[in-house]
């Protein structure tokens, strides 16, 4: 590992993928100098054409650079252009152009290797400063380390540090006892129970655990719990817990019953009129889509709370693209909607178990009239009222993409984000930098949001073994 002198002036050389990942990256390096080599400008130029997200981002970065360099003379461009900041000292932007750059023998000519050569040349020229390459390309970081070039990943927009993990959304106390009596003793808090119409609220006074947050589950067991509640209000010295509806026996959601505390909590979040945003994480087969569709169907067809269901996901495949797809928007999205159709078939089978094929077909046609499948790129500018919006595979969206979808919410709209940060197919996104992680982190203290991580796999022992062993 190359040591960086923290007291010396720092020059950050940015790779193209950093600017594509975060167009505002130029403003994230405080008072230090940001260097954009000519190689990066050329790569931005190659990416600027088209309607894909990468093209829009490249054009946004180019416009930012154009604004910063407007009305600036050539000497200032070479020596450094002030980067304005709202608070603190200004940074500087420097455009790096070497006309006599020598290749790094024996490396072949490529944009990555040219960027390395430019960084090495700048390091040799600026012995008074620490020259640091910033890239999200793992292989480039390995090459830079081999050449003795200080290198870093771009971490500014991460939702969590490496030592952190996505919040679990639940706190289980196995020794709480019936009605949570053991829990209050272990926490040394005073408890007052109130009944408010159809709700039972526990008002706690005392030292509240620091890890408690709004919209989380507090339970005495993962399985067969006798006490399950959601945190409605929390502070250092007080908390309000509301008992959950028991969806294990009797009461169901579109015929679906919960198998454990986390699933019961999930169904409560999905059916809660006071929760506008639900994020559900979990590995494959934990029932994320199944329970969400059940709640959507119940609130659209039975209780009539919503007028329609909109289902969307990032059209990103695990392998090679299959090429041009003809047809309407829904037909183009159909190859990525297998999970939706599979779960809808299972729900119809369970709901109409023993009924005629005609009844099942009639229900399917009714659902088809209420369900819309939409591509995320076509959601810009829309306002969704009276809608149950499901965003599947949310881990494959960037934070900015998820923001553009969440801000589509209009009157009486509920948004549910489903994802598994262990299965990210988008290049340069990780479990810490994906949109799912950002949404969970930023909404954890909002009273109308809830998050849960599902643990038990409901598919088969093979699916469970695959998740654990592979």
Automatic annotation (TrEMBL):
One of its GO terms (cellular component) is cytosol. Residues 10-142 form the PIN domain. One of its GO terms (molecular function) is ATP binding. It comes from the Bacteria. Keywords: ATP-binding, Nucleotide-binding. InterPro entries: P-loop_NTPase, PhoH, PhoH2-like, PIN-like_dom_sf, PIN_dom. The keyword ATP-binding applies. CDD domains: PIN_VapC_PhoHL-ATPase. The keyword Cell cycle does not apply. Pfam families: PhoH (PF02562), PIN_4 (PF13638). SMART domains: PINc. Belongs to the PhoH family. In the N-terminal section; belongs to the PINc/VapC protein family. PANTHER family: PIN DOMAIN-CONTAINING PROTEIN (PTHR30473:SF2), PROTEIN PHOH (PTHR30473). This is PhoH-like ATPase. It comes from Halomonas ventosae.
